[in-house]
From TrEMBL:
Lineage top rank: taxon: Bacteria
Organism: Vibrio renipiscarius
Protein name: Nucleotidyltransferase
Keyword terms of this UniProt record: Transferase
GO molecular function, one term: transferase activity
Pfam families in the cross-refs: NTase_sub_bind (PF08780)
InterPro entries given in the database record: HepT (IPR010235)
Length: 142
């Protein structure tokens, strides 16, 4: 269990910055080879920060979770994610292996489509939800 109750809020600040960077990367009209690799890498660290922030929140709330898969399933049970968001994040977890093969043009084009159409929007939704949850907690503390 997490000994620092503010750990999830601290990690959230990093997630917010990563998600903003991902949003900027997704807003391009077209990508050259290096930009596509950067898009994939930006997605990867945004995704990692998303599940780790959710893990810290769940631990703060008393849940015992370890793997990304258990984090997403538990966030659904705890009503932090909708079933659609949970499914997309689990798909992103599975597809991460595909994303490591950015040297293969077919893989990188599939990765680009998934990131732009599914994964980035859900990371944005989760980030905004966590920001609101953090703000609500701070209002209650005042």
């Amino acid at each position: 269990m997490n000994s620092n109750p503010d750990r999830w809020k601290q990690r959230l600040q990093h997630l917010i910055k990563a998600q903003q960077r991902l949003e900027r990367a997704c807003s391009q009209e077209s990508y050259n080879e290096l930009e596509l690799a950067g898009l994939v890498q930006t997605f990867e660290f945004s995704f990692d920060l998303t599940w780790k922030t959710l893990k810290d929140l769940l631990e703060f709330e008393g849940f015992d979770v370890a793997s990304p898969r258990s984090v997403f399933r538990t966030t659904l049970e705890a009503k932090h994610l909708s079933s659609e968001q949970c499914e997309i994040m689990l798909e992103a977890l599975i597809k991460r292996n595909l994303l490591f093969h950015t040297y293969d043009e077919a893989n990188v084009l599939e990765a680009q489509a998934l990131i732009l159409e599914s994964f980035s929007p859900v990371i944005g939704q989760v980030t905004r939800y966590l920001e609101e949850k953090c703000a609500q907690g701070e209002r209650r503390e005042q």
